[in-house]
Amino acid sequence: MEFLISVMKHFKTLSSYLDYLELPLPEHPMLSIFTPKVNGYLPCPRKSSPPITNECYSISLKKFVKGNLNYGRTKYDFTNGALIFISPRQVLQWDDNVVFEQKGFSINFHEDFLKGTELVQQIKKYGFFSYSANEALHLSPKEERQIESIAENIEIEYQNNQDEFSKDIILSHLSTLLKYANRFYERQFLNRKELSNDLLVQFNQQLEDYFESGQLHEKGIPSLEKMANKMSVSQRYLSDTLKSETGKTTTEHLQLYLIDVAKNILLKPNKSISEVAYELGFEYPQYFSRLFKKKEGISPTEYRKLYKMN
């Protein structure tokens, strides 16, 4: 019997990636920018694609004027424009149900374009490159104009005759664009307390269901990535949203939940500290004891002595 093995396509260069998308080849081997040319619309990529990966960053402002594109299950405030960030090796896939007729812009650059610059480290600190499409940055009209203005400056330099200053100027504009995006994402977090609260409620409910179903004994401490996927958000976005709203990340919320459950179990005299740790999914009891003391200020043994029921 023969088995067909499907190999995901990976594009090492910007040119090969754009050629696959059936888009115009770049003026620069590691940088391209698309803005509306004919009839005010961006050039449209191929209608559909199986999963693919590449080695490029992409920053796109999508202003859909025809057709629909849903962003997970989330309803957003701003519908004027959505700023989407894609990082190297992120899996991309779309089908012919998505209509790409749009205004806006698309900036694509190979990761090697940043090598030897300050931006190569700076860009890794921006969490929004780890967000999935359903957490796109939705801009107000004023924010949209600011971002478009920066993109226009990048295009002007991109179309100019290249000289020794060109790359530094483009990188400076890119850095400014990313800083504004970071500011606007903070606004989005703050303006969506209802969404943040909803995510926290869902997160806590998932934890409760996981513990009550007995999965803790079978599978250990739950995977934050899988929990986020069930909520139709990325792990990084969930953590950033909860951090903005509550001051604590998903890891911290999970740890606090575990400590709260541990307190009840510790008051059962027939359980040793090690047994409590294993019951909570900790592979090493020492880690449980360190975490407990870090969060509560006393060790599990001290807690048991302090609150022991007579």
UniProtKB/TrEMBL annotation:
<keyword id="KW-0804">Transcription</keyword>
<feature type="domain" description="HTH araC/xylS-type">
    <location>
        <begin position="205"/>
        <end position="306"/>
    </location>
</feature>
<keyword id="KW-0238">DNA-binding</keyword>
<dbReference type="GO" id="GO:0043565">
    <property type="term" value="F:sequence-specific DNA binding"/>
</dbReference>
<keyword id="KW-0805">Transcription regulation</keyword>
<dbReference type="GO" id="GO:0003700">
    <property type="term" value="F:DNA-binding transcription factor activity"/>
</dbReference>
<dbReference type="Pfam" id="PF12833">
    <property type="entry name" value="HTH_18"/>
</dbReference>
<dbReference type="InterPro" id="IPR020449">
    <property type="entry name" value="Tscrpt_reg_AraC-type_HTH"/>
</dbReference>
<dbReference type="InterPro" id="IPR018060">
    <property type="entry name" value="HTH_AraC"/>
</dbReference>
<protein>
    <submittedName>
        <fullName>Transcriptional regulator, AraC family</fullName>
    </submittedName>
</protein>
<dbReference type="InterPro" id="IPR009057">
    <property type="entry name" value="Homeodomain-like_sf"/>
</dbReference>
